[in-house]
Design goal:
14 helices, 2% strand, 319 residues, mainly alpha, globular, 53% helix
């Protein structure tokens, strides 16, 4: 049933794209594939984030990728689906009265509510004693997933209106079937011991949420690039789409945009080469001053137009 929902429409690509839309499940996998490869290529970032969270790197990797697939759960809402009627495909039908309110009940907010009110409680009922039953676990999970539902660049905001305004019962069932299929494919990713620790949530997770949210936003941006992720409505198993389409296409977009190459620091090449300018006295000093091994604080004071910005960038590069 989760293959009856669109995730992206074919806006300005009608002359290029053959399919009229991109299925929601496939878009979710596209974004997750980008995140999968970002972590695989940049092992230093992966190790650093895992260490900051006190998680095994592979546990962190699975948790991050699995959560990326959930980022657009709110698009299962019938109100969201009603924004476009794709005549060429046999998808769920718009329902009169289910009006999408992107400002107050956007899909990011609807995804958060869907998880909190439907998907998590159902798992709690089915798996007594599992991660869903403990309050600290629930709060940690909400803080973690907030980084993914907030993939449009800010924390999720909006009214807590009843889900029935936007969803039908069959929408709930489709979202449940989708998440269950992911669990069957990859296993449940939640690090129960960490999520159940209030201290871990406050001292480990909270400080890295902005970086996590930034990675999620990047993955969603790249995974939405129709040049590399063309519309697809062909029904197929999730694992087939993941292996044959999502991962190869993610490799292409990361190679094209440079994210397949791990950044490596280089020595400062000199002021003129860096800025194509002749340095002012302040900038000459910044390019040649002796730097200590330990951390330093530099305060630059000079006249307007003396080039403080370039001098500061020079010091930052040299540090």
């Amino acid at each position: 049933s989760y293959l009856l929902y669109w995730g992206k429409t074919r806006k300005g690509e009608r002359k290029v794209e053959r399919a009229p839309c991109h299925l929601l499940a496939y878009h979710a996998l596209d974004v997750a594939a980008v995140g999968e490869l970002i972590l695989s290529y940049d092992r230093h970032r992966k190790a650093r984030l895992a260490k900051a969270l006190d998680l095994d790197p592979e546990v962190f990797h699975l948790l991050f990728v699995f959560s990326l697939v959930l980022h657009d759960l709110g698009k299962f809402a019938r109100s969201f689906q009603g924004q476009a009627e794709i005549a060429e495909c046999d998808l769920v039908s718009p329902v009169p009265g289910k009006i999408y309110d992107g400002k107050h009940r956007g899909h990011t907010r609807l995804g958060t509510l869907l998880w909190d009110e439907v998907l998590r409680p159902k798992r709690q009922a089915l798996r007594t004693g599992c991660f869903m039953t403990d309050l600290d676990l629930q709060e940690s999970c909400s803080l973690w997933l907030g980084c993914f539902f907030g993939h449009h660049g800010q924390p999720v905001m909006g009214a807590c209106s009843p889900l029935e305004i936007d969803f039908l019962e069959e929408d709930f069932l489709a979202a449940e079937e989708f998440v269950s299929a992911l669990e069957a494919l990859w296993g449940e990713p939640w690090p129960v011991d960490a999520f159940s620790d209030e201290h871990w949530r406050d001292s480990r997770l909270a400080p890295v949420t902005w970086e996590l949210a930034g990675l999620v936003t990047l993955a969603d941006w790249l995974g939405s690039n129709t040049e590399f992720f063309p519309c697809c409505v062909e029904p197929m198993l999730l694992e087939k789409y993941w292996e044959n389409r999502a991962l190869p296409q993610a490799q292409q977009v990361l190679a094209k945009t440079g994210f397949a190459r791990v950044p490596r620091p280089i020595a400062f090449p000199g002021f003129v080469k860096s800025f194509n300018l002749q340095p002012t006295p302040l900038q000459e000093w910044a390019a040649s001053a002796t730097l200590a091994e330990e951390p330093q604080l530099m305060i630059l004071e000079d006249l307007t137009g003396s080039g403080k910005t370039e001098a500061a960038l020079t010091l930052a590069h040299r540090f």
